[in-house]
Each structure stands twice: as C-alpha cells, then as structure tokens.
C-alpha cells in the first residue's frame, strides 16, 4: 500500500475538515494507507470513521498560519509538519500532504528531505482549468526572485509532472511574458527564452497571460512573484463569478425558475473553477513528494490532495525528475 502522511493540524479548518477529508480518501482508495499526524487525543476525538487504513502519529506542537516559517520549523521540533516530514525522511510514508503554513511546509521539506540533485530551487506548481482541460503553472510563490536557469528547471520539472501525473503526451510549455515576440520582455524572460528554445521540452514560445486558460498549452512557466499574484487573483475571480451568478439568479421568481432549469450547467461550471477539485500543489524539486493543499481547504480538497499524492507516488515523479538532465 502507498502510505501518505496528512498534517491533521495544518489549515484554517483543521483538524475537523482535514480528518474528514482523510477519511473520505481512505474510504475511496482502499489501496492507500493514511497516517494522520498531530495531537493524538484531538485527532482520535474527531476521528469518526473506522477505516483500517488510517493510523495516527502524535505530534505535540502546531505551526500557525502567520508564524515565521523558518523560525517556527527550527524551534518547534515536534510540530505536526516536522513529524510528518521526518516520517517521509525515514521512508515510513511515501508522501506528505498539508494545508498549513506554506513557508513552513517548504522550509521543513528542504530541511528534512533536501533538494533533488541539480535543482537549485524547488517550485510550487498549481493547476488551473482551461477551455478544454487543465494547465500546470509554476512557480506559484516558492521563489520571489529567479534567474534564467531556474525558470529552465521549472519548465523541465513541469513538463515531467504534466506528462507523468496529468497524463499529457509531449506537454506544450510556454514562458509567461508581456508579449509573444521573443525580443519583448524583461531581462529574465529575454535571457530564459533561448535556454528553453534549446532544451528538449516541447517549448512553444512566449505567451501572454490571456493564453493561460485558453487551452493552447499545458505548462506555464514564470517567476514566483508573478506566479503568486496570478494564483491569488485567479482564486478571487473564480469565487467572484460564482457569487455573482448566485446573486443575479436569486433576484426574483423568474430567475429562480431559470436557475432550476440551468442547475446542471451551473454545477459543471462550479466544478471546473473550484480549486478544491485540483486537490493540491506539488513542491517540485524537493527530494520527496509533498503536496500543499490550500489553507482554506475543506474535506473535498484534502481528499483530492491525497489523490494527487497517490498519483505522484505511483508514477514515481521524483525519480522521473531526477532522470532529467538539468543545467
């Protein structure tokens, strides 16, 4: 069985929603073993499912969402995220899932597992819906400042992940820019372009932000500062659209009737733009499988994050990335 550690104490709705999502995953995927990490008495009290494939490992401390990541990881040795990653380091679990403090998760992952040889900086990869499928975007905030070779490594890792986990043959990779022309952009994109052009990935060139959800490509590469801005803005837009539709449809009896007839369409749209459906974002470049669920993740998101971790383990994504000749 594939064993996945879940940080039961991380996230805005921990531990109840985290445990609920872990139970859903355990019930849906009987070939997955789940190790809940956190305060044992609290977890056992909230654990209402009786699944033989769920176990609990005690961790006396937690790291809050607003704590200093590196300081908290160093000082709180018995924090749930530290304990979960120690289990991964000792090969007692195959992957770690957390909805907690992103910086602390990344810092602990680097302290415990380290980077893949040749990868200078890990990247956070996130999946967005497109007109005809999904697109993987990285880096979404692990690194605010990057050099051209970092973006090249992001592109190579993203291409491998899209092919192995998202099952996209020869994924199309684009470099995010202010224009499609190779001679347009800032120093970073101008210097990165020839590196990607000369690489072995299926690089289709510079792309503008409007192309991210067009369905014309499978992987978008950018620096972490821009990526995090896109991530936060994208999440707010999807929530705004759903709320706006609900508000407009509740104005009067006629719109309510129209809404009843259109419910299947609305549910389909909501599912496509709901970030809970994607599950979580992998830390690519870390020498182990770490999946970051959204801080506001509820049960469905945790269940899907466990699924993403399972697929990454099954495809041995770390080994696949190690096989890439990085430079």
From TrEMBL:
It comes from the Bacteria. InterPro entries: FA_synthesis (IPR003664), Phospholipid_synth_PlsX-like (IPR012281). It is found in: Cytoplasm. Pathway: Lipid metabolism; phospholipid metabolism. Coiled coil: none annotated. The keyword Acyltransferase applies. One of its GO terms (cellular component) is cytoplasm. Its EC number is 2.3.1.274. Keywords: Acyltransferase, Cytoplasm, Lipid biosynthesis, Lipid metabolism, Phospholipid biosynthesis, Phospholipid metabolism, Transferase. Signal peptide: none annotated. The keyword Transferase applies. One of its GO terms (biological process) is fatty acid biosynthetic process. It catalyses: a fatty acyl-[ACP] + phosphate = an acyl phosphate + holo-[ACP]. GO terms for molecular function: phosphate:acyl-[acyl carrier protein] acyltransferase activity. Catalyzes the reversible formation of acyl-phosphate (acyl-PO(4)) from acyl-[acyl-carrier-protein] (acyl-ACP). This enzyme utilizes acyl-ACP as fatty acyl donor, but not acyl-CoA. HAMAP family: PlsX (MF_00019). Homodimer. Probably interacts with PlsY. Belongs to the PlsX family. This is Phosphate acyltransferase.
